[in-house]
Amino acid sequence: MLPKAWSKKLVDLNVAKLTEEDLAWADCAFISAMVVQRESARETIDRCKRAGLKIIAGGPLFTSEHDQFADVDHFVLNEAELTLPPFLQDLEKGCAKPLYETSDFCDIQETPAPMWELMNLKHYASMSLQFRGGVLSTASSAT
Predict the structure, then answer these.
(1) pLDDT confidence of 132, banded at 50, 70, 90?
(2) Does residue 141 register a pLDDT over 80?
(3) How far apart are CA 34 and CA 38, in angstroms?
(4) Which among 62, 60, 63 is positioned nearest to 45, based on CA atoms?
């Protein structure tokens, strides 16, 4: 959902290390984390801050605890499909606010497909997918 003209790199700290080269390459860091990743998120924010990067955070951890992360420059919370566009518009104009949030829900059918090309899929045995409607069932048979 980021501008097409931006150069992008994904570093999934579950399967890779964040290198000094990654930090030197970037102008800003978008960070997302779950609550159980709190300490890793703090360490990553500290490294990004020391590297002089602007830090934008979203996801479950920051939605519930954004007031505990003073080093984050901007929070884009709740539904990024709704809060990211105004943040990006303000950022482009040089007037980005510290907090963007909504209580509305987005239409998942409007959510763009992930940029799979940013990932090395060989690092993953399985992934969770979000989908709309219906019931997913699995069947197994004993042999």
Answers:
(1) low
(2) no
(3) 7
(4) 62
